[in-house]
Specification:
Mean pLDDT: 86
Number of helices: 5
CATH superfamily: TonB
CATH topology: TolA/TonB C-terminal domain
Shape: elongated
Low-confidence stretches: 1-14
Number of domains: 1
CATH class: Alpha Beta
Structural class: alpha+beta
CATH architecture: 2-Layer Sandwich
Helix content: 10-25%
Number of strands: 8
Strand content: 15-25%
Strand order of the largest sheet: 7-2-3-8
Largest sheet: 4 strands, antiparallel
Distance between the termini: 90 Å
Order of helices and strands: HEHEEHEEEEHHE
């Protein structure tokens, strides 16, 4: 009896039953667009260290502001369109857009190393003009010390500083990707 069971199981293992055919009905999902770039666009200069121009309103009010822009970069590294995701105010909106159109990038690349068009979110910061003048003597270069300035609303101002200031650390609403218009040259 034991031998018959063993023979039966070895025969079953040698000749397994065919797998059942499953028919699955469902929907087809089509993904449009392209894969993200293998290599992201890179600025040709260290633009983060260059202070953008100030408006008179920003200087007079000793304003510290920040803008976020969505840059549409072509396959030659040229900014073709700009979307202002966070408006800095104090008459800096047009300055931010104009400055963005002057940025140059090495273009993004696909998996084969070919240049491709891409988009990038770009921050632009205006430290307090008078903070920069008082501490560094000029307002054309963003100093390393910017990161040590406390964010607006984060607590008491560092009054021991030569020029107490708060930094704008706000981000932008995600809805701005859809609601803000593109600006072209």
């Amino acid at each position: 009896m034991m031998l018959a069971a063993l023979l039966a199981s070895s025969t079953a293992l040698a000749n397994p039953l065919p797998a059942p055919q499953l028919k699955v009905r469902g929907e087809t999902i089509v993904i449009e667009g392209h894969a993200p770039p293998k290599v992201q666009p890179k600025p040709v200069k260290n633009y983060f260290r260059i202070a953008p121009p100030y408006s008179d309103a920003a200087i007079e009010s000793d304003f510290w502001g920040k803008a976020f822009l969505l840059l549409d970069i072509d396959d030659h590294g040229t900014v073709k369109r700009v979307k202002l995701l966070k408006h800095p105010g104090h008459d800096l909106d047009l300055i931010a857009i104009d400055t963005a159109f002057h940025l140059k990038f090495s273009p993004a690349q696909d998996a084969n190393g070919n240049p491709i068009a891409s988009s990038v979110v770009w921050p632009m910061e205006w430290p307090s003009y008078w903070w920069m003048i008082d501490l560094f003597g000029l307002a054309t270069r963003i100093p390393d010390e910017v990161v040590h300035v406390p964010c607006r609303g984060s607590g008491p101002m560092h009054l021991g500083s030569i020029h107490p200031a708060y930094r704008d650390c706000d981000t932008f609403p995600v809805s701005a990707f859809e609601t803000e218009p593109w600006v072209t040259r």
